[in-house]
Amino acid sequence: MRELKILAVVAFFTAVVYWGVEPFAHSQMHPHVAPADFAFKDLGATEKKGDAAKGAETFLSAGCIGCHGVAVANMPAPMDNASASATFGVTPPDLSSAGAIYDKNYLAALIKDPTKALKVEHKFNETRPHPMIQFFGLGGDLDQEVADIVAYLQSIAPTTLDDKKVYADACQRCHDMKYDKLMSTTDKTALMAYMGTLPPDLSIMIRSKGRDYLTTFINNPQKQLAGTSMPRVGLSEKAQNQVVAYMEKVGDRKKAEREDLGYKLIGYMVLFTLLAYAWKVKIWKEVH
Amino acid sequence: MAEIKKATGLIDWLDQRLAVNKFIKVMMTEYWIPKNINFLWAMGVVLMVLFMVLIVSGIFLLMYYKPDIKLAFDSVNYTIMQEVEYGWLWRHIHGVSASVIFLVIYIHMFTGIYYGSYKKGREIIWLTGMALFGMFSAEAFSGYMLPWGQMSYWAAQVITNLFGGIPFIGEALVVWIRGDFLVADATLTRFFMLHVLLLPLVILLLIAVHFYSLRIPHVNNQEAEELDFDVEAKKYLDGKKVESKVVPFWPVFLSKDFFVVGVALTIFFYLVCFHFDFAMDPINFEPANNMKTPAHIYPEWYFLWSYEVLRGFFFDIGGIAAMDIGLAAFGFANVIFMLFPFLDRDTDHVAPAHKRPLFFVWFWVLLVDMIVLTVYGKLPPTGANAWVGFGATIVFISLFIVLPIITKMEAKCNNGGCK
Questions:
Q1: What is the complex's ipTM, to 2 decimals?
Q2: How many Cα atoms are found within 13 Å in the side-chain-facing hemisphere of A195?
Q3: Best A24, A248, A287, A288 residue to mutate vs chain B (most B CBs within 10 Å)
Q4: Residues linked to residue B317 through DSSP beta bridges, in sequence order
Q5: Model's pTM, two decimal places?
Q6: A2:B77 CB<8 A
Q7: pLDDT exceeds 60 at position B419
Q8: Which of A20, A179, A280 sits opposite B78 (nearest CB)?
Q9: Which of B78, B269, B285 sits opposite A207 (nearest CB)?
């Protein structure tokens, strides 16, 4: 009985220390932020219904392929990665899967005003323009034209993409994933100059940041790290979950093995403890 | 030379050459332990088990770890964690036991303080124990740095910088310790040597002395009762096992220890497989970057209390820089426990804290104060946090100033000098 009382005291103080240096301290150092917003409410939603066929024409007339490739529509990138890096600072994305991985409202807002949608106004302004040129329309209803382009991109996008492909299309232009041998497509020197700092390797980012942080960070980097050069990429909820799942697959690839072995190790120790207890009772019977 | 006869078996053959029977008696079957002890006395064996776990897992990690700043991070996080079969298990076992061992050390220390096991005849046990604590701290710190993560790099930068506060030789000393002007490859390589060779050797040696120092004064017990071990042992050997106040180390005492170790390892493997993150700062999964300081720099949880004492004085007092006062307080905090047996002036009276009214209060205030220091050592030292840290530091220092006074008062009472 007395030993149980002592055990309770030890457990209580251990728990207080744990609570203080883990959950409590972390809540103080990382204040809570609003949950991820996959509707991109700050950008406004368009009411217009896009027409993919018209969008295809608008897409060509707007000059998008001057910088972007669209592999699925047999439009290769106009420049190789090295020249594109030197010209733009970062390789422009191929738009084959853009309609599938980015949010519709976000895409529309991005075409109209890239710096606003990307949330990089603190880096790009009139004296230092963003490499993606703002689309001012072809003379008709701007919102309708943009909606058409978005509809076109959605129409050509594949319906299913695996996690790794989503990551490659959304993140690989800037970030390395060394532990899965995926390297950024942009030249490092150009990227460094463009971003102001070299974007980190993402191999074990899942372990340094964790799922919760990444959920709000990828959705809106400024919310977690004000002033960061990382743009808001505008991934849909599904696509973002795929990116995080891929990061977990690479950065914590032994998770399943760890949990499976965990039950066995604990089971073994429980058995050991029970036997040890039985032995102790038997031996101490003689001395008590 | 002793007369060697034809052996009757392997044990006898060994006994004639190594006196194994005698050795087993002295070390195990006739090494007497008081019966009146609780599970807190099993912490020593738990520590021994954890230390063995650290050595074995460390040897496995050593096979793949590369002590080079260009390779260290990936050798841990890729080679060991992802490529090597069960490398993750060895790393988690090593990391978690390094953290858990400190929890058990603290329980072990506070048990000693509570039951007065540092007093009268047992001073060497306390001193070697505190020396072990110091060596374990150095061992933990040097190992923490090896994966070359962001927090381990900056913690190394801050901790080595502390030596710069030593008058006259400070700056030269910092460079000498680092082997460079900054924490760099030379620092990593020498810390690697310390971690895998020199410090473990010293620890093994100290453990041997710590165990040996228990032999003569014997281990204390729950009531701090003075036992005549020879008389009690004779009773036990005569078959009066229930009447005897002692039990042999093997198998009686260890049978209870096995059970306690079993419980401890069950919790341990739960932590290793499902909750290892408490022992691995997430910031250390980012590679060290000497151009980018983390938002908050803090040590591992077991150093937080002394770290908070270091930064408790955040303002200058009487023309002395806050940094210098902090360093002095930090130095004080790190040596004062060593002096424990000599600060307790109630030297002749060994008793558990609940039989020493003033000391009882003192004990719990110390425990709570150290927890406050630990928690605030991690929080950002701004606003009210800084003042709580300052207050707790003052309380900590005051406690050790009043310790000789209150124990002296209690000593007088024991001699009938008070009412």
A1: 0.94
A2: 21
A3: A287
A4: B320
A5: 0.94
A6: no
A7: no
A8: A179
A9: B285
DSSP structure string for B99-159: HHHHHHHHHHHHHHHHTTTTSTT-HHHHHHHHHHHHHHHHHHHHHHHTT-BHHHHHHHHHH
Mutate to test the interface with B, among A28, A266, A268, A274 (most CBs of B within 10 A): A266
Cβ atoms within 10 Å of B44's Cβ, excluding its own: 19
Question: How far is B2 from B97, CA to CA, in rounded Å?
Answer: 45
Name the β-bridge partners of B32: B248
Question: What chain B residue is nearest to A13 in terms of C-alpha separation?
Answer: B371
Residues 6+ apart with CB under 8 A from A247: A167, A202, A205, A206, A214
pLDDT digits (tens, 9 = 90+) for A195-227: 989 999 999 999 999 999 999 999 999 999 988
Find the closest chain A residue to B235 by CA distance.
Answer: A287
Between chains, do B77 and A203 touch, taking CB under 8 Å as contact? Answer: yes
Contact B378 A21 (CB under 8 A): yes
Which residues of chain B lie closer than 8 angstroms to A288, CB-CB? 242
Q: How far apart are CA B186 and CA B349, in angstroms?
A: 51
Residue B132 · residue B203 · CB < 8 Å: yes
* Integer Cα distance of B301 and B284 in angstroms: 14
Please tell me the distance from the alpha carbon of residue B177 to that of residue B192, in angstroms, as a whole number: 13
Q: Which of A12, A16, A277 is nearest to B39 (CA)?
A: A277
